[in-house]
Amino acid sequence: MAQMTARWLARMIVPAVLMALAGCGATPVQGGLHRQSSADSTHHDSANPIAQPAVFQEVNYTAAIYNVGERWPFVVFDEQTGTVEVGPMSLAHERIIVAEPSLFASKQARANWRANGSPGVLLSPSDPPREGDVPHFSFLGQGVPLGYEEARNLSSDPQTLEQEVARHVSPRSPRRPSARRMLEAYGLLLGRAPLTPGVRNAMYVDTRHVAGARGCGEDTDLLGRRGPGVCVKGEGMTVELLLDRRTRAVLAVEQRLAARSPLYPGLRPGTLVESRMIVRARSPH
Q1: What is the DSSP track for 232-254?
Q2: Taking a C-beta distance cutoff of 8 angstroms, is the pair 65, 73 a contact?
Q3: Containing H/E element for 180?
Q4: d(CA 102, CA 252)
Q5: pLDDT of residue 285
Q6: For 142-152, how does the pLDDT look when each residue is reduced to its tens digit (9 = 90+)?
Q7: pLDDT band for position 175 (50/70/90)?
Q8: Residue 124 burial class via C-beta count within 10 angstroms: exposed 0-12, middle 13-18, buried 19 and up
Q9: Which domain holds residue 250?
Q10: What sign does the CA torsion over 26, 204, 86, 48 have?
Q11: DSSP state of 155
Q12: Closest Cα to residue 279, out of 20, 7, 56, 25?
């Protein structure tokens, strides 16, 4: 039901999103799939001397979990659309709107919500937009913040790039981050961050070399966009990067349950619990 609603949502939101972003000159994120030559793979690509903001818009579908470990746990699915503009100093302005009413994961989830006294956690499109500035925006959402300048100055050598991203994802651990977290990080950076062309190429190479990563065939996101996927399983989840076959742009970063989990009560293996769908992105070259 939630996924059918999301596909209906796409017909309503995506045309308006594309028209709005077309007006500001947005273009799809693009990238190649080849290694850098030895002549240009051992240095960091220099940033554009006239730094332009990075702008991206995404539709986020998320399983929101409440009262885990208590008597009446429940899960609802939320859909929100966010527009983010990130300046060269990593000062970001973001605007988030609720795209669809919250949907209960099951009848039991609704019953448990009522047993809890019907708390006011459900979202509605009538809710006012949440808008504001983020002083130190990170394109990763985990670990040490990776902002605008850090993204522009990543190495274009695949091996060095992997090490740099790993240090941001898991800075205090002597062990390399899990394959699941690394693939998720690559997907978010490729979809959102102002990467130079050389870094973008190197990062596509690295996605294929994440331990356990495999091609997982053609798939379709909740907005109806189809393309090949790269998947890795770990820590009870399967992460998938869904790519545009023509441009190699990241369409979505998705996570599904690989097994039943007490953190997601009542949800079956294979359930989509998060999808970050990149609608459009504009990044300096």
Answers
A1: EEETTEEEEEEE-TTT--EEEEE
A2: yes
A3: helix 179-192
A4: 21
A5: 64
A6: 889 999 999 99
A7: confident
A8: exposed
A9: 2-282
A10: negative
A11: B
A12: 56
Mean pLDDT of 174-200: 93
pLDDT in tens, 215-261: 999 999 999 999 999 999 999 999 999 998 888 889 999 999 999 99
Q: State whether residue 148 is helix, strand or coil.
A: helix
pTM for this predicted structure: 0.80
Q: Specify the 3-state DSSP secondary structure of 12.
A: helix
- For the chain, give the number of residues: 285
DSSP state of 73: -
Domain count across the chain: 1
- Residue 10: pLDDT band (50, 70, 90) is very low
Question: For residues 185 and 163, what is the distance between their CA atoms, to the nearest angstrom?
Answer: 12
- 103 φ/ψ angles, rounded to the nearest 5 degrees: -120, 130
- φ/ψ of residue 68, rounded to 5: -60, 135
Q: How confident is the model at residue 206 (pLDDT cuts 50, 70, 90)?
A: very high
What is the enclosing helix (H) or strand (E) of 19? Answer: helix 2-22
Residue 226 CA to its chain's centroid (Å): 17
Rounded Cα gap, residues 168 and 144, in angstroms = 5
Q: How confident is the model at residue 74 (pLDDT cuts 50, 70, 90)?
A: very high
